[in-house]
Amino acid sequence: MNESVKESFNTGEGLISIEIIAELAPITPEIMARKQTRAPWLRARDEYFRQMDLENPPEKPE
Amino acid sequence: MTQSIVPFARPLFLCEDFVRRERGKMDFLGAYHAVSPRKYPFTQDWMCVVAHLSGGLGTVNTYIDIREAETDSLIHTSIPREIVLPSRDYLIRLTHRFQSVRFPKPGIYLVELYCEHECIADISVFLRPPLTGSSDE
């Protein structure tokens, strides 16, 4: 693992704690162009709430 | 009142810091969902993105994207790091610890966790309009 990734706890009891010292990357054209997807459970969540919004339009703030 | 709508549980949360304790325990400090800066651009000194993962296996890359919710525009991304998931049954407590995250203006921002370029969880954080009185939350 990279030195920015620290596995701090693993007793073999089924729990591992991983700490990443996160560094921001410059937003380059390559990063903007990378292909990203959404996990199926997030797509299902988005669709569920989209449908709920249609059936029960959210109240607009006054 | 219209029909009830079942909510979803957020698998991510944000906090300012954490402290490791004995036997795998961890104290998360300053959990928050909104920030009240005095002015913009605003820099959040510390931000920890905490996730609990299970069911994965093998070596995967992971990173965080921060987007402006209204426009979906990418504000920040972290350098991808590889983590090893040794068993599908293990619970992985994954913490990305950021220092100095800059938010350009008020609004709602999405913090998204990616594994292998697939967004697996997200959380929103509300950057309130500037306040003149109290300190940051």
What do these coordinates show?
The complex is a heterodimer of chains A (62) and B (137). Chain A has 62 residues and is an alpha+beta fold. Chain A is built from 2 helices and 4 strands; from the N terminus they run βββαβα. Chain A has a two-stranded antiparallel ribbon with strand order 1-2. Chain A is flat, with a radius of gyration of 20 Å. In chain B, the strands form 3 sheets. In chain B, strands 4, 6, 7, 8, 10 and 11 form a 6-stranded mixed sheet that branches. Chain B contains no helices and 11 strands. Chain B has strands at 12-15, 17-20, 26-29, 34-35, 42-53, 58-68, 73-78, 81-85, 91-103, 107-115, 118-127. The model of chain B has no long low-confidence stretch (mean pLDDT 92). In chain B, a hairpin with a 2-residue loop joins β10 and β11. The chains are: A alpha+beta (62), B mainly beta (137). β2 of chain A pairs parallel with β9 of chain B, so a sheet runs across the interface.
Gross morphology of chain B is globular
Average pLDDT across residues of chain B? 92
- SS element count, helices of chain A: 2
Distance between the first and last residues' Cα of chain A: 51 Å
Q: What proportion strand of chain B?
A: over 45%
Strand content of chain A: 25-35%
**Broad shape of chain A:** flat
What's the pLDDT, averaged over the residues of chain A? 87
**Which sheet architecture does the biggest sheet of chain A show?**
2 strands, antiparallel
- The helical percent of chain A reads 25-40%
Structural class of chain A: alpha+beta
Low-confidence stretches of chain B: none
Distance between the terminal alpha carbons of chain B, to the nearest Å? Answer: 33 Å
Strand count, sense and barrel status of the largest sheet of chain B are: 6 strands, mixed
Task: Write down how many β-strands of chain A occur, each being a DSSP E stretch of 2 or more residues.
Answer: 4
Strand order of the largest sheet of chain A: 1-2
Assembly status: heterodimer
